[in-house]
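Letters spell out the chain; backbone shape is given numerically. Both lines appear below:
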Amino acid sequence: MSLEKAIARLNLEPKVLEPGHVWLAGAGPGDPGCLTLDVLSALAQADALVHDALVSPKIVAVAEQAEKFFVGKRGGRLSIPQGEINALLVKLAREGRKVVRLKGGHPFVFGRGAEEALVLTRENIPWRALSGITSAFGGLTSANIPATMRGVNGAIILATGFAAVSDDRPDWAALARTGQPIVIYMGLTQMADTVAELRAAGLPADTPAAFVENASMPQERTVTTSLGTLVEAAALEKVVSPSLIVIGGIVSLRAELMGQK
């Protein structure tokens, strides 16, 4: 059965993107195969697409009829201020455009989607959020690292390694004491401090750890190491952004799942 026929059998009735509305959509970790049908429908309807740097060009190209507005937002690099992005969304909506705000991953998971939604609400602009596969789960799956495994972990922690607001800074000591795996977004620039705090809280140096670089993309790379050698491994392997940092017992399962000793 073709993909087109399979989708047709779902009998989908996509919601209509109205003029003057803004949809906050998640593009997933990068691979176009991770797009939801809701997001695909949104891209087909948009006449204004406001997108981040981490969105695949192949996904951006789906909205061929839309005017494109590139707004950066890539960790560790200069980005367009969030206030300017908010103002652009308001402006486009008030012009009667059909606006899709496309973000890597999930708009409400370290994507600042909630901030944009609050602005739109205060400006009386109708909006809708569309789920995307968040980079942590998309990246772990692509790298063959299970997010959970019976007998290994009963929870998983998603944390930001770079907090623009001090109150958002994770309490690494408290997270270390849970004993649960931690997946860190945007963690490269503050990695040395993060490792030091986790170690000071008692997390063993031999705790399995990994980098998942360019998750789900053709250039994806996974580097496995340990918490104690995380910083050195990043330098030796020249790990670059975007990369997830994974710390915990789930990392050690990767080799076995891939048939390695």
Notes: Strands lie at 22-26, 48-51, 67-70, 99-103, 127-130, 157-160, 182-185, 208-213, 221-226, 243-247.
